[in-house]
Amino acid sequence: MTNVLITFPIKEKFRQELTGKFPQVHFDFSDSIEGAGDKKVTVLVTYGSDLTEEILEQLTDLKWVMVASAGVDKLPLEKLGERAILVTNVSGIHKTPMAESVLAHILSLNRALPLIHEQQKQKVWEKMKSSELRGSKALILGPGAIGGEIGRLLQAFGVYTIGCSRSGSVHDGMDEDISFEHITERLPEADYIISVLPSTPETRWILDRSHFQRMKKTAVFMNFGRGDLVKEEVIVEALQQGLIAHSVLDVFEQEPLPVESPLWDLENCTVSPHVSALSAKYVERALEIFKENLQVWLAENGEFKNVIETKRGY
């Protein structure tokens, strides 16, 4: 018997779909990982943060962890690897809401929407400067499924897109692709530096002060990937010293962002509470990938989607 524990709430219609489609599977919709050690769980469906090393030791029957997130950096990956436990994620389902979030912020800044909103509150009728996207350049760190969709939308607005990845291989939605080794030399020409990189040993703290010193003073830096891409103090310094024009941050070194953080009060910084991937269709899309993989699991035949290499972290 395959025992599946889902540790986050899902709608009743999704519960019925799962039990109806897979009658041979026992589903536990406890919405919590507490007490999981006594349930002989073979498959764990989780957002990831609740699976600690201590709990993992209790799950002696566990064979597969399905993470309903793209990032798996909160998982005890080393221990999972040692036990050869299958780890999969839902990479790809975030591309639509995240790409739309990035585009919304860029258009908002270019068309001076924050200033328009502020002037309305103050009942001020005054023209303001605005710009357009056509003819600009975007350097996209992490041109995978999400980065590729961001690139595709930006290309529709006449933006030249440069994808930057570990390998530098060709990606959809990019006019050009480079490797991490060439970030420094291309930064001076980028109007938008957009990161959707996951947290891995290769990407942690990959940007430092020297990178911001090479950016245009009119550039916008955007981080929608993970908060350990660059130290917060580096971003604060860059904004305070005018090394860049603006920063849009959806992820942070510490979350929730502490109230004492200078980022809250900087006029040239947009603080977003890690919401760019949220969508009413999030859980539905995640469960579709889970159902496909569960069919492979039960048939013991076929290839799993979105398998994570525990040593690499992606």
**Structural class per helix/strand content?**
alpha/beta
Helix content: 25-40%
Strand order of the largest sheet: 8-7-6-9-10-11-12
Task: Name the CATH superfamily assignment of the largest domain.
Answer: NAD(P)-binding Rossmann-like Domain
Please give the number of β-strands: 12
Whole-number total of structural domains: 2
Family: Belongs to the D-isomer specific 2-hydroxyacid dehydrogenase family.
Pfam families: 2-Hacid_dh, 2-Hacid_dh_C
Domain D-isomer specific 2-hydroxyacid dehydrogenase NAD-binding: 103-276
Organism: Sporosarcina gallistercoris
Task: Explain how this protein is built.
The chain has two domains: 2-92 and 280-299, Rossmann fold (3-Layer(aba) Sandwich), CATH 3.40.50.720; 95-271, NAD(P)-binding Rossmann-like Domain (Rossmann fold, 3-Layer(aba) Sandwich), CATH 3.40.50.720. Helices cover 31% and strands 16% of the residues. It is built from ten helices and twelve strands. A seven-stranded parallel β-sheet has the order 8-7-6-9-10-11-12, with helices on one face. Strand 1 (2-6), helix 1 (12-21) and strand 2 form a beta-alpha-beta unit. The chain is elongated. It comes from Sporosarcina gallistercoris. Keywords: NAD, Oxidoreductase. Residues 103-276 form the D-isomer specific 2-hydroxyacid dehydrogenase NAD-binding domain.
